[in-house]
Amino acid sequence: MIQANHISRVYTMGVVEVQALRDVSFTIIPGEFVGITGASGSGKSTLLHIIGLLDSPTTGNLIINGTDISTLSEDQMTEFRLQNLGYIFQDYALVPELSVQENVYLPAKARGMGREEYLRKSEEILTRVGLGHRITHKQYELSGGEQQRVAIARALINTPMILFADEPCANLDSKTSRIILDLLKQLNEEYGQTIIMVTHEEWHEEYMCRMIILSDGVISDQRECQRGLIKTI
Ligand SMILES: Nc1ncnc2c1ncn2[C@@H]1O[C@H](COP(=O)(O)OP(=O)(O)OP(=O)(O)O)[C@@H](O)[C@H]1O
Ligand SMILES: [Mg+2]
Fold first, then answer.
1. Is pLDDT of 228 > 80?
2. Structure letter (DSSP) for residue 112
3. Residue identifier of the C-alpha nearest atom 17 of ligand 1
């Protein structure tokens, strides 16, 4: 369960202040696939970074599975991220010098997983995302959709309970986007992972339970999507 309570974020640039988020509150229940949408500059990435613990709110607090994030030290926060959270970015954020498999097991290695296990697990996940035959390849040898599937495999290696995705299909054509979204939906249904995804595309709603709409840093609307809301147990 993610509870965002009265989250605000002000960026200070010299004497200029930009209020990117204003008093944003919501709850996301385990297993939900939630979209965040809104115009460019409305605060979507800022919000995703805050609930993904990549940034801190100026005011307000965030509670994830009963843990008040503001009480964690930097080290505890890093550990919390490695244990519980996975990230997928628009530009894939792969390390070009590393092979596909090395990219995928990096977060597992950082978490202290043994070599045998991270080799086995990374191969298993790459097979799951349809790239079992590509594990020794480098990023430049892959299409955009394949690169994004590597990034998804990397996000899954530590079996996170929450996946964050910031416009993961922005650089992909609609056919490739569907492959990525189908994959995310399957993971959401099979493993009950919570997925929070920023998107500009209205048709992505068919994959989601709920859409949160941001305008100028506030939630202006929320709507149930085609898949419908999942019930709290
Ligand atoms: N590091 C920063 N320093 C100063 N202002 C920032 C910073 N990051 C974002 N902003 C500002 O905060 C507001 C929200 O930005 P944000 O990146 O969250 O928007 P977004 O909804 O993700 O937009 P886009 O759809 O273009 O990605 C914008 O006005 C932006 O200019
Ligand atoms: Mg953004």
1. no
2. T
3. 45
